[in-house]
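pinging the channel bc i need a second pair of eyes. not urgent but kinda urgent?? the chain im working w is below, pasted from the shared doc
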Amino acid sequence: MGKVISYIYRYQRIFLDKELELYGIGSGQFSFMMSLLRKEGVRQEDLAKKYKMDKATAARATKKLESTGYVYRQQDPGDKKAYRVFVTEKGRSLEEKMRKIALKWDSTVFSGFSKEEKQLQTAFLERMEQNVSGIFE
């Protein structure tokens, strides 16, 4: 099982890197950008927690998006050590493209699955993730 999950993850990264190359970002920034397009003004630290990564990795992803002009950071008025991340107009212009990329990946991964099978598989994986995350919390 671990081998299969690892393969899917690696293929997803390769797919995203290829699809995003034109926009100057990689697979490591995709999830952050999708989250920020749904809800901006999130603290950088909260993005790290959401994606279960360390603060340094989250900072690198945010800085990459900032250097390409897709987001900007503002110091959190309530916490001078924290930053909130906002999407720029340039970043907003990617929204439809990013959604299409996500749908293309989903349709590839779930090709041949019924709607019920897709829902079950997603639910099983989410439950597995909850089971293992408990080890580290």
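so The helical segments are 2-20, 27-38, 44-50, 55-67, 89-92, 95-109, 115-136. and The chain has one domain: 2-136. — does that match what u expected or am i reading it wrong
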